[in-house]
Amino acid sequence: MKNFIYHNPTKILFGKGMIEQLGSEITGYSVKKVLLHYGKNSIFKTGLYEKVVAMLKANNIEFVECGGVKANPSLDKVREAIDICKKENVDGILAVGGGSVIDSAKATGRGFHYEGDVWDLFKGTGKSEKCLPIFTILTISATGSEMNGNSVISNEKENKKWPMAVSMDNYPKVSVIDPELQKTLPVSQIVNGAADIMAHVFEFYFDGSNDSDLTNEFCEGIIRTTMKQARILVKDPENYDARANFAWSATQALNMLLQPGRNGGDWATHMIEHSVSMFYDIAHGAGLAILFPAWMKYVYEENLEQFERFAENIFGITEGTTEEKALEAIIMLIKFYKDIGAPVTLKEVGVKEEDIEKMAENAAMRGALGKLLKLEKEDIVEIYKLAYQ
């Protein structure tokens, strides 16, 4: 195992009705006025907006609003939110939504303390030393943004979907995870969430560091739990226990619990997917369901030992050579995605074969991707081809 420092500063309020405790948590940070940041219409349809406003008013917390965050959060919306924060002199942000809203809030919180354009923080040409305190009420479990410092934003004018440098200040101070708030989600959100959760685990699990046995066990437990609960939820979306286990799996998959002792994760597949969802605006989880098996087919020989372990401990495959087990596990993974209703080819989601070259060039514009196997543009083209049909 490699040396590591593990520190997660986010406090989680998990369970039914926990939103009622968030007001005192916010005021505990001496925050008196927040930007209420959210997506489009869902928080109004479900009645969550009224609950949030009542909680803020009950704790004498002023608020201004910035809604309309898209599924792939845009740079323009972040700039708009920063302008509102500065004009209204807020001292915190309350993000109500899924990973897109929370990512947008993190970028806004850092951009608030930066004199230049916030996109500099994504290009790496600027640095912001502080972030407004972030608080979240999670409505979709998938990205783990409620308990990490990650933020990915789309610069639509430049066709770039890039991450911002992680900082401990980016981590939310307090996050509410109430599975009850997610019971009305469409099945497609469950499916995409499952693929997103599993992809986060795969990034750590297959990064070439096989000597962290406990972390391997954590990874496998999250994968099995996610698959089990997803199967239940696509048939019974209001099942509270399944929803709770699914939600906690999503948080654990990317709160960096799986990073200690490893190589930091591979992350090539995420960057390859970012180019697809940048050009086609598909759901991130759907793209990952398509691309991860393709990446596995391309790289599995680089880490046969781990792929064999995956085959045995996730799918119970015990017969055959190491290579045969690995390939069978990839087939079984694709079957799982099909079973829950996820797309498994780029063709299914409307990607045009003639755009593969353009997407690969976009994905590789910042250099080679990955830890297990360094992927250049030519490799990415081949992975897209494997994923196409």
> What structural category characterises the helix and strand content?
alpha/beta
**Helix run count:** 15
| Main sheet specs | 6 strands, parallel
SSE string: EHEHHEHEHHEEEEHHHHHHHHH
Return residue spans where pLDDT drops below 50 for at least 5 consecutive residues: none
- Principal-axis shape: globular
Mean pLDDT: 96
Strand order of the largest sheet: 1-8-5-4-2-3
User: Between the first and last Cα atoms, what is the distance in angstroms?
Assistant: 38 Å
Task: Find the count of extended strands (DSSP E, 2+ residues).
Answer: 8
How helical, in percent, are the residues?
40-55%
- Gyration radius (Cα, Å) is 20 Å
Strand content is 5-15%
Can you walk me through this structure?
The protein is built from 15 helices and 8 strands. It is an alpha/beta fold. The strands form 2 sheets. Strands 1-8-5-4-2-3 form a 6-stranded parallel beta sheet, sandwiched between helices. The longest helix has 23 residues, at 213-235. The chain is globular. The model has no long low-confidence stretch (mean pLDDT 96).
Entry summary:
The protein is of the alpha/beta class and 389 residues long.
What key phrases describe this protein's structure?
8 strands, six-stranded parallel sheet, 10% strand, 15 helices, two-stranded antiparallel sheet, 49% helix, single chain, 389 residues, alpha/beta
